[in-house]
Amino acid sequence: MITVESLTKTYGGFTAVDGVTFTARAGRVTGFLGPNGAGKSTTMRIMVGLTPATSGTAHIDGRRFAELPNPGLEVGVLLDASAQHAGRTGREILTIAQRTMGLPARRVDELLDLVSLTPEEAGRRVRNYSLGMRQRLGIATALLGDPEVLILDEPANGLDPAGIRWMRDLLRGYADQGGTVLLSSHLLHEIEVIADDLVVIGQGRIVAQGTKAELLAAAGTLVRTPDVSTLARALMDADVEFGHAADALRVEADPDLVGRIALAAGVALTELRAADGAGLEEMFLELTSDTQRDTQRDATSEGAAA
Amino acid sequence: MTTLTLEHEHEHEREQAPVRVERAAPAPIPMSRIVAVEARKSFDTRSGFWLLASIAITAVIATAAVILWAPDDELTYASFGAAVGFPMAVILPMIAILSVTSEWSQRSGLTSFTLVPHRGRVVTAKAVVAVGIAVASMVLAFAIGAVGNLVGTTIAGTDVVWDMGLDDFLYIVGANVLGLLMGFMLGVLIRNSAGAIVAYFVYSLVLPSLSEVLAASQSWWGDLRPWVDFNYTQSFLFEGGFTGEQWANLAVSGGLWLVVPLTIGLWAVLRSEVK
Ligand SMILES: Nc1ncnc2c1ncn2[C@@H]1O[C@H](COP(=O)(O)OP(=O)(O)OP(=O)(O)O)[C@@H](O)[C@H]1O
Ligand SMILES: [Mg+2]
Questions:
Q1: pLDDT in tens, A3-30
Q2: How far apart are CA A223 and CA A289, in angstroms?
């Protein structure tokens, strides 16, 4: 489990990370989502002690990262796959990590195999690696010590579709076995498919967090019925917010809930679906375009409370 | 909304039953392992490998040069020692500089300082390795010089002269270790390969001549010089024999040029951001 509390990082007068608080739970994949420059990488660097926080704390299973006796065996970290000595071979980079962690030498071959780097490729210098090969090597380094916690900054970066699919299954497997997986991305589609929980950050602040289901529900439903007024009344009784759109209603709840409310109210529906362009994409753009809006803050606190 | 959403959410939420067994806390990483890894890192790249290889190569070249061009009466061990020692004074500081700065310039520090989240331990291991390399290199270079002395005198048909004692050797090793530590200090302080290398050459090539010029024209500098000019005080190490006052000179100027900036550099390394 990763616990981040009131984390703040300022560079001179600029606040890159602003009072960030969230928890990445064991057994779940937590997606850390935000547009470019939102503060994802900075937050992750602080978690692993590479960047000192201005204030606030980050703990891994209740301990600061620096307190871990052999961090590689407990936390797998991938921050920037190209941050390697360009003159070392892929195999050598893994070997250095394997020796530092005190693991048997065969782990290197196991991991090269796992990330599908051939022996010939592993013998090449990283300078000559493609983007995706570097990424695979970085993932191999993170997984080498079979850690229970994974902190991955944009792990899908540069992977081909098969690689992305493979990684998705791998991370799912890790979480299902009780591991904690935190991965960042600025690509919603990527994270929507794999994450159980989402933490959305914009301009250094958390703008939304909760389970994927909660946040999807918050994105709304479009419902069409000949009897708009009855449905509107039923929705009001159920305390669900909505807006009018021609002969339809845009409801701030997920289709499942809206359908049940309509059924209970005996209203026949002609259409029921996630609101136009609703997906996380729209929510994401909306939430991050302006983090100052009070309505979003409300949505955040509601989501967190639920 | 909240209550109904909750019901909905439970259907989607995965069963939270971590099946991973509690593991025993891993043992801390021993210092010896960090030193061994740092030693490996010093020659597992092409540049690192050739830098180390160049120690032996330049020692052989310097020895051959003495055999070929030195007059017969200068074919003594001291000549060979001076010749093989000279390239060391340049190569060893470079090895020390790059071992530190590559973590920043090549950005491998992102991994190194995450696997060992105590930068002081990594930097200490690098210092141990660098000093170890310096001592081993000097032994190797002087061994090559000794072979050269035997071969050279045999070719020239002169007597073999061993005019260098163990204490001379130790002084020279000491001087080279200090030179290497100066490079190490600059690496820690500057944390950029090009910057630290330039700084080292300014320190070792430019400053001595400025100091020399100043000493020639200003007598106050001439008096002060042994206490503040580390290059100058060190140079006596190469000439054997060291008086009590010279030891004091070395300690004071070394404190000024080595210990103080190294402390500042270490302080910065521990606090800086690695990215
Ligand atoms: N050393 C620094 N000095 C000044 N500003 C910095 C520094 N490091 C980071 N920043 C700023 O902090 C903000 C957050 O950067 P960060 O790299 O964490 O973003 P990110 O969410 O990872 O973005 P991306 O999706 O593009 O990777 C950016 O505006 C960046 O310019
Ligand atoms: Mg980033």
A1: 999 999 999 999 999 999 999 999 999 9
A2: 26
Ligand 1 atom closest to the Cα of residue A34 is 21
Asked if the Cβ–Cβ distance from A97 to B115 is below 8 Å, we say yes
Measured N-to-C along each axis, helices B219-228 and B244-254 cross at an angle, to the nearest 10 degrees, of: 80
Q: Tell me how crowded residue A143 is: count the other CB atoms within 10 A of its CB.
A: 20
Between the alpha carbon of residue A246 and those of residues A273, A279, B68, B140, B241, the distances in Å are 16, 21, 99, 89, 99
Nearest CA to ligand 1 atom 27: A36
Q: What is the pLDDT of residues A84-132, one digit of tens each?
A: 999 999 999 999 999 999 999 999 999 999 999 999 999 999 999 999 9
Residue A296, pLDDT score = 42
Nearest Cα to Cα of residue A122 among A103, A109, A132: A109
Q: What is the pLDDT of residue A214?
A: 76
Cβ atoms of residues A94 and A144 within 8 Å: yes
Domain locations in chain B as residue ranges? 29-265
Q: Which helix (H) or strand (E) holds B153?
A: helix B119-156
- The secondary structure of residue B236, as a DSSP letter, is G
Who's near A260: CB < 8 A, 6+ residues apart?
Answer: B4
Q: Which residues of A touch B23 (CB under 8 A)?
A: 148
Q: Are residues A226 and A270 in the same domain?
A: yes
Say which residues have a Cβ less than 8 Å from residue A170's Cβ, sequence separation at least 6. none
Which CATH number characterizes residue A257's domain?
A: 3.30.70
**Total number of domains in chain A:** 2
pLDDT at A273: 81
Closest-lying ligand 1 atom to the alpha carbon of residue A204:
14
Residue finishing a domain among A210, A226, A252? A210
**A24 and A111: one domain?**
yes
The predicted structure's pLDDT at residue A193: 87
Domain span at A245: 218-305
Residues A45 and A156 in one domain: yes
Please list the ranges in chain B whose pLDDT falls under 50. 1-18
Q: What is the mean pLDDT of chain A?
A: 88
Distance from CA of A285 to the nearest CA of B (A): 23
Say what the pLDDT of residue A227 is: 87
**B29 alpha carbon, distance to own chain's centre:** 24
* pLDDT bucket at A218, cuts 50 / 70 / 90: low
Mean pLDDT of A51-72: 96
Confidence of residue A303 (pLDDT cuts 50, 70, 90): very low
Cα of A238 to nearest chain B Cα, Å: 7
Q: What is the DSSP letter of A81?
A: T
User: Is B80 within 8 Å of B63 (Cβ atoms)?
Assistant: yes
User: Which of A194, A210, A226 is the C-terminal boundary of a domain?
Assistant: A210
Predicted confidence (pLDDT) at residue A305 exceeds the cutoff of 70: no
Same domain? For A240 and A195 the reply is no
Instruction: Locate the chain A residue with the closest alpha carbon to B33.
Output: A100
